[in-house]
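Researcher: Quick one. two chains, 806 residues in total.
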Amino acid sequence: MKKPKIVILGAGYGGLMTATKLQKALGVNEADIVLVNKNDYHYETTWLHEASAGTLHHDRVRYDIKNVLDRNKVEFVQDTVMEIKAEEKKVLLEKSELAYDYLVVALGGESETFGIKGLKEYAFSIVNVNAARRIREHIEYQFSTYHDEQDDNKLAIVVGGAGFTGIEFLGELVERIPKLCQEYDVEQSKVKIMCVEAAPTVLPGFDPELVKYAVSFLEGKGVEFKIGTAIKECAPDGIKVGKGEDEIEEIKAGTVVWAAGVRGNAVIETSGIESMRARVKVEPDLRAPGFNDIFIIGDCALVINEEINRPYPPTAQIAMQQGIAVAKNIAKLMRNQNDLEKFVPDIKGTVCSLGDHNAIGVVYGKKLVGTPASFMKKVIDNRALLMIGGISLMLKKGKFNFI
Amino acid sequence: MKKPKIVILGAGYGGLMTATKLQKALGVNEADIVLVNKNDYHYETTWLHEASAGTLHHDRVRYDIKNVLDRNKVEFVQDTVMEIKAEEKKVLLEKSELAYDYLVVALGGESETFGIKGLKEYAFSIVNVNAARRIREHIEYQFSTYHDEQDDNKLAIVVGGAGFTGIEFLGELVERIPKLCQEYDVEQSKVKIMCVEAAPTVLPGFDPELVKYAVSFLEGKGVEFKIGTAIKECAPDGIKVGKGEDEIEEIKAGTVVWAAGVRGNAVIETSGIESMRARVKVEPDLRAPGFNDIFIIGDCALVINEEINRPYPPTAQIAMQQGIAVAKNIAKLMRNQNDLEKFVPDIKGTVCSLGDHNAIGVVYGKKLVGTPASFMKKVIDNRALLMIGGISLMLKKGKFNFI
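Model:
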């Protein structure tokens, strides 16, 4: 009898969790499992702001996928997903194609620029390892030109968006800038860091007291916030923002990092599955509406928080929980049990780092700032490693600089 | 009685040697000595190719000038020299001016682009610390863009000139490239390094057997030599070279480093002292013709090697020997002894490094290659530190990775 074929697309938090849980849940003879990923490594999306600022080397934020796979049970295919043909139950990759009986779509998100002119071309987004090291090098390069060109604008950095990624990136930047100033003999007063946010507040959804703490910490380190200010256009030498009713203000900057929007993966949009900004409002068991053989998790999935009737923000925490749930549900399907589990996120906490030694957050309902929050952030970061790769991976790649 | 005022312009090998020798030779009451330099640090010009390639950090190639000065005897002024008014016996600095009784011009050289179109704008020259770290960062930045842009041309590096600096820089590059490939996940076969030289040979003036050794070593590491080939033009994306009689060949490269020409400092040219490419054919006692109170040393001085009736190439070795000679001659003038010493270079040897573990050279008339040559190169590098700053500076900044 032919074994069912399970294909997992993407080795981010959700996909890799699905694969590692399935390899434990299923016997070798129960299914063929294939994991497809563009790179041969997994990266910690939630650590990319550190690699982008240059405070943590990009090799610290990634690890070989093969290290966490049981190769007897899971086949790894390094390739890029081009198209999901849902009606034909197959996936087109760049170099080959794969038929499936069950598909797990865990392709991650993409930056959403909302059609703002020039953002795609001239702003960086903290989306993957390649982007992160390019941002790091771009900023360093601006500094390296300073002595020849004496152009303060080139040193300026604009962060678009005061959400989670924007604020965490700013936290790393204020740690990094003094080191760059020393490295390139630049006076620190020459370096401007600005955060531009269209919404009326920093970190919308966060406790206002914690937000205030974060803002005054970052302002104390020299960050200027322009809140309620929309970016209208991005150019190679800076941005234009709206000012009052009709006015436009130009802000010169050598580096613009866009950290304000996430959407699902564009592959979703040609799959025949209904979506909005490439995110699919999944069924309670995480399947795509109308497709009993397709599970969608992570940034491509939209799960409604019924308490507030708004979608949960896509986080690593939820993606991993979804991976666990999908692995269970697929194991049930393999065994012809049709009582699939309904997925409900279990939000243990949210911590937003402010550099390596400070943070704000809520953990198990308790508000934290400063060293305790920073400690918890590292515990959370290490937990992701532990959950996917076990204790050896955590010890190898974890963060233990607790003080 | 007013003390005579000795002004030394430039704290390179020649100027700093003059200052440190004068502070030993003269008593506090014999003269006022002022050393003027743009930066508060001295840098090892002969090590800049390492900082440029990124094989040695730029802080390793520089040290604080104050560390080697006796502040009771030498006043240090950090400023930029704008003009020498030889007839008025004064020097205009950016922020002030200085009158002198005796002037030592040790301002170093500049890159000579021979009017080749675009070289000044788009090619880098290994001229100082600022330039070196900019070259390093420029190359890294090209690598960091590779995964997004997949443009092999951006990885390509063209070195213009197969003289001493060009060859030494190539030696460092072939060590650095494998590390950059690893850092940015780039296949090494994608990276092209090319050396373009208008002259009919690599390292003109060097022993042909040694030249052959150097070329085959570098070729073995992937360097392509285009000898007898003149650069006609430089653009942001590469160079154009002459091919045959009238043809032009385009060579794409993300980085072009021009290492083919040195001239004296432009300040010379408005001083009223006769010069050619800002180099002054000095009198045997190192004074400028027609000016008994001005000594000129280092890259701005032209000293003829009478054995072959051609100028000595400007080297650190000669600049330091000139500094010693000038300090002696000035001490004589202070004591009204007019039998000034005639300067004759004492060439102990010349070693051209090929990375950190290989080199070619002639030392005390003996030809060396490989580890012994590389060892001698480091001895020479350390000797410069020892001669100017004594044993403590040598131990602090020297190169002791002999194997």
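The interface with chain A takes residues 130-131, 133-134, 136-138, 140-141, 143-145, 147-148, 183-184 of chain B (CB under 8 Å).
Researcher: Thanks, that's what I needed.
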